[in-house]
Fold this protein.
Amino acid sequence: RAFQINPKLCPEGKFGFDPRCRDWYHTGKMKYEKNNNWSHFTAPYKFANSNFFGQTASMPIVDPNTNMHVGQSVVDFTIQQILDVLDEMTTPLLKDGFHILIASEQDDFNSETIIAPGYFHNKTADPIAKFVLPHDDCKLKTSNNIYCRDFDRILVKMQAGYNGTEEFARTTSDGSSQKLHLSYAPVYATTYIPHNSSDFSQGVNESRSVIFSLALVNLESSLLQENGGKEHLWHTVRLSIAALSILVVLIAFLVIRESYVISLLITTPITRLLHLLQRVNRKNIEDDLPRFDRTSTSKEVLQVYNTFDQLYK
C-alpha cells in the first residue's frame, strides 16, 4: 500500500523498499513540518518478512542550522504488554463489555484503531467506528446516522486528550437500538527535544503529548442487571473510572519505558560520535579511531562511524 502514501515516490507496481513511502516516515515528517510535532506512533501492523506485530515510534532528524527535515529515526516495539494488561482475565468487564485503545490521530489509511472488539492484528486496521458500531454505516465523517455522529463526537474528545464518561447507542444485528456507557482517559508520552541537535550539552526541552486514548465500554443492560437498577449504575461507573485510571497509569509506565529506551538508542551513540569528533579535532587520537561496540549500536550509526574512520585514515 506504499503507493497510497506517496504515489510519486512509490507508484503502483514499483518494487523495492523506500522508507519515505512508509507510514512511520511519511506521517512523522508531515507532523513535524505542519505542527512541529516531534513524535509519531503508528497503528499496529505486521512487520515485513516476519509474523511479528507491533508498532513503530519515530522522531524527526532535523538540520540544526536550517531546521530542515532530513530524515526519521525509528524504533520498533511490541504491544504485547499492553494487550496483557487489557486481557479479560486481568481486567474483567461485565457481559459483552469490551476495551478500546485508539491512537491520538488517524494514520494514512484513516485508521486510529489499536485495540477493539473483533479486531485482530493480522489484518489492516479500520476506523474504530467499524468495530464499535458494526451495524451502522459510519464510513464517512458526514454520515447522517445519528449514532455515528454521536460516537464521532466522543471520538474527537478522546483524541484531544480529554477524560470522562459518555453514553452512546448503536444498532444491533436485529435492527434494534442498544445503549452503551463508555469511560475514557488519555495516555501521554514525554519526548525530549534537543535545543541544538549538533550539541547535546545544551540540554533538551520536555514535550508531553497524547499518543493513545483508552476506554472501557459496558452495555447499559449489563450494568442494570449486575447492579439491580439505575440507582447503582453511577456507583459502577465511578468504579469503572477508577479502574480506568489504574490502567492508564500502567500503560503510561510502559510508554515511558519505551520512550526512555528510544532516547538511549538515539542519544547515546550520537553523543559517543560527538566526543569522538571532538577528540579528533583536539588531535588526541594518534592511531586508529576507538572501536564501537557493535552489539549496542545501530547499523546506521556504525555506517556513520565507518565513514569517519575511512576519512580519518
Notes: The mean pLDDT is 79. Residues 233-281 form the longest helix (49 residues).
